[in-house]
Amino acid sequence: MIPVLESRTLRASPPLDYASLVHADRVHGSLYSLPQVFDDEMDAIFHKGWVYVGHESEIPKPGDYVSRRMGKQSMILTRGADQEIALLYDRCPHRGNKICPADHGSVQSFVCVYHGWAFKPNGEFLMMPAPEGFPEGCDKAALSMARAPRLESYGGFVFASLAPQGISLDRHLGRGKTMIDMLNGLSPEGRVRLDAGWMKHRLHGNWKGLVENHVDGYHPQIVHGSLLRANKPFAGVRDRKDTSASRVRDLGNGHAELDFAADFRQRNVMLGWTGGVSTERLPNYVDAMRQAYGEAEANRRLIDGPPHAAIFPNLLLAEMNIMFIEPLSEKETLQQTTAVMMEGGAELNPRTLRRCEGALGPAGFLISDDAEITDIVQQGVSNTLPEWLLLKRGMHDEVVEEGGTRAGGLKDETTQRAFWSHYKNVMA
Ligand code: FES
Ligand SMILES: [Fe+2]
Fold it and tell me: Which residues have CB under 8 Å from 341's CB, separation 6+?
């Protein structure tokens, strides 16, 4: 059994009372800046809870691997000879050397560069140099790399928990699953690939601020004003007036959604979410969608488009882009971004890739705005007064939709309240 890292037990400081730091309409500013809060979050959320660690399509063949960070642990997501996916602690069972040779790649075996022990891609011990020095009958299992005790996929997205017990992934994802279904449902084959390569941004801000910003419908006209003004078709769809038909939703368990579909439906235009590409320019893709789902259902999907949602704690669905975050400290976060490639979407995929680069690439319009605001927010929250940050917007006219989902207008802080109410449950 793998012990879950408990930084708390190594510390002398008294435990924080999270119930008193998070309220329905406000949160305490110290939650963004105290190292002790970061340590507690890594234990309670990133080690014990379910965390997104990768996509099946990133490691399609036996021996493929990607290196990932889960809380404070370096991990390796790998595919074994039997096609089974495993998440290994990146640590040699001999004397603790780090094993993973690169960010991603493919191996026949992992070989430790210290004394040369070798392990199968699934982490099982394979061989060691000069084995005669070890006692007879050594337990081979004890010589293997350690695995995350729980690993599961939903719709190709792989999640793990370092706690041997806890709620199932199915229960954790809950209504968040509909967001993954919506994305996969834009592929005529019902599957997406995340194999276009990852762009990494090291952002100077607390991880929670990034998640909140991702589902914040209030800031785009201000923070991304220059982009909206420069890009008329985009600005037309996302006009961000309070009259927008778009909605924000609390999907439960900390998951939240910005739902733009209502605006697309009002305009009744297919593929509005591609930036205005007409169906005539993607005839094979549109055809394949109609063949797969029937004309009416395919048309509905092509109007509604992909989801914009945050899956607690670290997976961000950004229409045709996927991001995931790895917290590095209370004031630094690594964000990785890729474009969503649709299986059966050969005409669409190159356009998606170019749009992703333009918005979120090294010189991307959106990422530069959001990276800068992240930095400025972190500087602000490091000052101590006023003590509380507000989450009140739209609280008075939220509605409860069928199924119990809380919803508000596009600029309302329903999504931030969704994050914090779950955070409080987990942390307190
Ligand atoms: S530390 Fe890995 S083989 Fe010795
Ligand atoms: Fe933004």
Answer: 192, 193, 194, 195, 196, 349, 352, 353
Question: Which element (helix H / strand E) includes 68?
Answer: strand 64-70
Q: Is a pLDDT exceeding 70 seen at residue 416? A: yes
Pairing of strands 321-329, 332-339: antiparallel
Evaluate: CB of 92 within 6 angstroms of ligand 1.
yes
* 115 residue type, one letter: H
Q: Does domain 51-161 fall into CATH 2.102.10.10?
A: yes
* CATH architecture under which domain 173-427 falls: Alpha-Beta Complex (3.90)
Structure tokens at 48: 């014990």
- Per residue in 151-188, pLDDT tens? 999 999 999 999 999 999 999 999 999 999 999 999 99
Distance, CA of 311 to CA of 300 (rounded, Å): 24
Give the span between the Cα atoms of 122 and 305, in whole angstroms: 37
- Kindly indicate the confidence band of residue 318, based on its pLDDT and cuts at 50, 70 and 90: very high
Residue 195: CB atoms within 10 Å: 14
- Identity of the residue numbered 396: H
Q: Is 134 in the pocket of ligand 1 (CB under 6 A)?
A: no
- Is 256 touching ligand 1 by the criterion CB < 6 Å? no
Ligand with minimal distance to 116 CA: 1
pLDDT digits 0-9 by tens, 257-273: 999 998 899 989 999 99
